[in-house]
Amino acid sequence: MKKIIYHILFIIPVLLMTAACVRDESDIFEKDAALRMDEVIKADIALLTGSTNGWLGYYYPEKEYDAGGYAMSWKFFSDGKVNMACDTEVNGVPAGEEVTSYWTIKPEQGPTLSFDLYNPILHYFCQPSNADLDGLGGDYEFIVLKATQDSIYLKGKKNGNLLLLYKAPSDDPLGYVRQSNAFIEESGSLFKTFDLKLNGETAATATITLTSAIRTITVDYKEDDADVSKKLSFVYTPTGIKLHEPFTFKGITVEEFIWNENALKYTSSDPGVNAEFVYNGSVLFSLELTGLQSAATSVSGTFTSHLYKTAQIVDQGVVYATTNDNLTVDGAPVKILEGTISGSYPFELTNLDIATLYYARAYVRTSDEVFYSDVIEFTTFIAYEDYLGDYTMHYSSATGTTTPNKTLDISLIEGTPGSTYYLKGILADESVGNIVVNYNPASSNLSFPINRICVTSQGYNFMWTTYSRGTGNGSTLGSFYVQSSLTSPMGMVSYDYDATGSFKLKYNETNVSYVTIGFILRNYNGGTSAGNVNGKDGQPMYFYPYFTKK
């Protein structure tokens, strides 16, 4: 009996303990998994949409963070929309400019932040190609690993890279991204080669690779007499660079660097660390002359200098000349531009010769050397007013004569301002009409309105003007004309205009062996006869005409 009681007393505590354990298990799982997942997702949604200023983070697309990262901003809205921006131009979206797409959180292995609908920024890093089926190795679905009031830890579902989002610290959620891009443009993209100095001593060399898809630093050094190369992924910040993970080298651990523009170096901001990437290249520059607008005696345009602002600039400007043989500050005229800062601003070269080909290039002179841009060409125009005036026309007086031996006084007087002239001095009887000469503002050339009259054995005949003239044969149609030795009709224009106002003639862009000028008389029966420049009967005269201004 005593044994029975003893066993009962022993069993009761065990049963009580078992009951207690069953109750504890019931307390832990009193909500099923689906309900718990739903509550977690609601909490994550509330956290994402609850940040007034949005979120910032460093997005690393390639597996193993192999290609570097990008500063990006996210602003989540309760209607399922998200605004996204990146620190570099992506898919045609300018750096720092937001695009809108959609987002959701799905209950998969865990809460999964998904951007299923196309986003031109995010999906750029995920797009496959024929050359690379994995594309840039990006993710558009992220498992939520951990969430606090100020940060969200995400993991790429496909490639496994971690993405930390943290609340934007200011009311300008794009400010960080845009400042990062500004640093890239102004300094980050310019300086690529460095010495890595630890405690003031050079320990390695480093090269930054920056492309649309790569942001890495390759550190080269010797270890046990062997060449070692270590590649570090990083992101740009508004003030420098931040490595994807801390890098330990010769007992010193570094992670983030601040750019010192005066010393041209990245200095570690990690506490108690004396480490620097010191630029070891030459002064960087890029010079351009663009937007040239030529005129009769001047040319204007834009001078652009990307010379790094720490360089000691002595002067800068444009060198120009009519020859490209010695286009330097020592061998050509120089136009010095005011101001010594990098940037774009207008310039103008004046007192140039009209109708003249010039060569020009920008220069910047520092205390050490002179830098030049590529050479550009421009030709000054002939203004409408430049053609007005009295000329001597030089021409030959007999068939087959190539050397001008006659002259004729002519004038170009104003017709329609800026558009046409009247050519005086050729027609014997100018009361019957005017020879009209056109002015082309685009090319600054002269041209003559012409019509085909007839075809002779010598080629086409063209008229400049027509009028009725009575002769012994009755009324005939007469015209001052130009006859070409070519076999197809072409207009006549001026060329070779020089600073004195002299010019020659050609047929469009083709020089011909001769030009005939005179009268052609056409009677009613269709016959033709030729006359000279005085309007009297005679043989046509063959010219190699040119005009000199009086």
Largest sheet: 9 strands, antiparallel
Strand proportion = over 45%
Total number of β-strand segments? 39
Radius of gyration: 41 Å
Label the structural class: mainly beta
Q: pLDDT under 50 segments (min length 5)?
A: 1-26, 451-491, 507-542
State the helicity in percent bands. 10-25%
Output mean pLDDT: 78
State the oligomer. single chain
Can you list the strand order of the major beta sheet? 4-3-2-1-9-8-7-6-5
Helix count equals 4
Q: What best-fitting shape do the alpha-carbon axes yield?
A: elongated
Task: Outline the structure in words.
The protein is mainly beta and 550 residues long. The protein has 4 helices and 39 strands. It has a 9-stranded antiparallel beta sheet with strand order 4-3-2-1-9-8-7-6-5, sandwiched between helices. Strands 10-11-12-13-14-15-16-17 form an 8-stranded antiparallel beta barrel. Strands 30-29-28-27-26-39-35-34 form an 8-stranded antiparallel beta sheet. β7 (141-147) and β8 (151-156) form a beta hairpin. The radius of gyration is 41 Å and the shape is elongated. The model is unreliable at 1-26, 451-491 and 507-542 (pLDDT under 50).
